[in-house]
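TA notes, week 10

Several of you asked for a full example with nothing omitted. So below is the full record: structure tokens for the whole chain, then the designed sequence directly under it. When grading your own attempts, check the secondary structure regions first.
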């Protein structure tokens, strides 16, 4: 088994053991691709949401938030195209009885060519050392060129089949490239079929004539159908944005990789309404602004990359993903799309209501164009969690599991620990905890040795521990232990409070965003 797979398994086990993420309905053997967040998980998740919400609504004069309902009029999903086209191509293996997304099987095959090329490059880099010219090698090495040619050929055929919705050719690609089921190892495939990802339910009692409604597969439509309400009541002038955080539901064919692909998940979406013709300028702006937001967390600049879409949805005129390096490779965390005026125009058509903006500068009315930024809270959580987890070797056979969360989003900001459970130390510790708890999420722990308590806090990513000992009773000083360096300093409680205010507040993170 690949080492990265082991790492990922350890991370999943850690997330459960320390109260971050639990399988939904676990005592009933679980519900596939649905997860619950535990006592520490909910704090981390809420902090990620606050970081996004405040960066959007507090740092931009022209972005406001809403919270629309999950249920919406079913015609909305007809207008948006979800009823007819929110499909994934699925294929079954007749031997293993497992179901796959045909596009994902083919994308994995394309990725194999990339891996082969990268292996050749890495081998040559090792052989040639400092004098290695990677660009030249990629352009001239016959083996690399051959892999590249095959990759491009497959890629072009795949894109054409997807764009033309040619399900027969998707199957033929799988057969031609001899793609096997990873479980049965056979090529005994069914035909490829389309599968709609929306969950349907009924609203109202059957006696009244119930109406079919959908659980929303994205939060964006709640923004589009409220565009006029917000624009008018907020007296908003273009360009302006509407932000929303909320649950979305997709009946994913293949749910895998823990909370990466769930059937119930949460999105943070912002629709930015602009003048037609200015959309590509704003697309570029949001592409950069969103990447800065990610990098500002300090998880490592090389962990991000853009993936520009070659296959654009029929209504989009530019689209890119921000990908993050997960233990299972670079994967999409956020999408940024230039959606033209498609959605608003469709709602204008289906509702029969005018959804136009009167531009006082141009003295004309039009349907605004939209740039969308759409990020999954759970995928963001996963990227933070995976990149912050470390099984750290401390030498002499000792090691600790530590989560190096950026302090402002850590679930617990500080732990107050009396060195021993007697001599008035617990009382003093409680006094300090009560002072700090109004500003910082603060835990009190007096069980077990101080070393064990430090490890427990490391394992949930608490950036600071404050230890109260006998000297505290004499001169009021405490020991402040920092999670990553494990350095300890003797300080007054005032000084500790000052350090905490600087290091763990969300403001510090937000201010860096503006300065950069
Ligand atoms: P994918 O190609 O991975 O299915 P997508 O391109 O369909 O994702 P979008 O419709 O652009 O995703 O949704 C925006 C964001 O919502 C994604 O970048 C991702 O972070 C999140 N997201 C989408 N589907 C899921 C899911 N099933 N589970 C968790 N997060 C999701």
């Amino acid at each position: 088994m690949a080492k990265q797979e082991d790492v990922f398994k350890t991370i999943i086990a850690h997330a459960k053991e320390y109260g971050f993420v639990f399988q939904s309905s676990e005592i009933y053997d679980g519900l596939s691709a649905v997860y619950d967040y535990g006592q520490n998980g909910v704090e981390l998740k809420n902090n990620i949401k606050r970081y996004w919400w405040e960066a959007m609504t507090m740092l931009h004069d022209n972005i406001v938030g809403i919270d629309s309902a999950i249920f919406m009029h079913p015609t909305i999903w007809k207008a948006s195209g979800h009823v007819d086209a929110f499909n994934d191509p699925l294929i079954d293996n007749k031997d293993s009885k497992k179901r796959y997304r045909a596009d994902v099987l083919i994308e994995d095959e394309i990725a194999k060519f990339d891996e082969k090329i990268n292996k050749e490059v890495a081998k040559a880099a090792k052989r040639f050392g400092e004098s290695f010219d990677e660009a030249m090698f990629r352009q001239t090495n016959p083996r690399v060129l051959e892999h590249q040619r095959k990759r491009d050929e497959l890629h072009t055929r795949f894109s054409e089949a997807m764009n033309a919705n040619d399900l027969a050719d998707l199957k033929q690609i799988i057969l031609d490239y001899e793609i096997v089921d990873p479980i049965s190892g056979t090529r005994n495939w069914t035909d490829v079929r389309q599968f709609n990802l929306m969950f349907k339910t009924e609203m109202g009692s059957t006696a009244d004539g119930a109406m079919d409604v959908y659980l929303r597969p994205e939060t964006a439509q709640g923004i589009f159908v409220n565009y006029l309400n917000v624009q008018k009541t907020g007296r908003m002038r273009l360009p302006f944005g509407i932000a929303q955080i909320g649950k979305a539901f997709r009946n994913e064919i293949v749910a895998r990789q823990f909370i990466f692909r769930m059937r119930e998940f949460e999105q943070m979406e912002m629709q930015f309404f602009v003048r037609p013709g200015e959309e590509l300028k704003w697309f570029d702006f949001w592409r950069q602004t969103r990447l800065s937001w990610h990098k500002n967390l300090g998880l490592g600049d090389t962990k991000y990359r853009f993936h520009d879409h070659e296959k654009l949805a029929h209504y989009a005129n530019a689209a890119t993903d921000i990908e993050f390096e997960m233990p299972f490779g670079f994967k999409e965390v956020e999408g940024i799309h230039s959606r033209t005026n498609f959605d608003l125009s469709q709602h204008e058509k289906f509702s029969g209501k005018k959804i136009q903006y009167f531009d006082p500068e141009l003295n004309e009315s039009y349907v605004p164009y939209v740039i969308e930024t759409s990020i999954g809270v759970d995928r963001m959580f996963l990227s933070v969690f995976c990149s912050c987890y470390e099984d750290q070797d401390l030498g002499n056979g000792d090691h600790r599991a530590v989560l190096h969360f950026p302090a402002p989003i850590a679930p617990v900001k500080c732990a107050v620990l009396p060195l021993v459970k007697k001599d008035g130390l617990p009382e003093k510790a409680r006094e300090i905890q009560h002072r700090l708890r109004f500003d910082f999420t603060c835990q009190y722990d007096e069980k077990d040795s101080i070393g064990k308590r430090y490890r427990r806090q490391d394992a949930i990513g608490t950036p600071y521990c404050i230890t109260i000992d006998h000297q505290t009773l004499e001169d009021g000083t405490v020991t402040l232990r920092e999670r990553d360096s494990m350095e300890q300093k003797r300080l007054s409680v005032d000084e500790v409070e000052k350090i905490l205010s600087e290091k763990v507040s969300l403001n510090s993170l937000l201010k860096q965003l503006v300065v950069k």
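Residues 218, 250, 252, 261-262, 265, 267, 332-335, 374-376, 378-379 surround adenosine-5'-triphosphate (CB under 6 Å). Use that as a sanity check on your answer.
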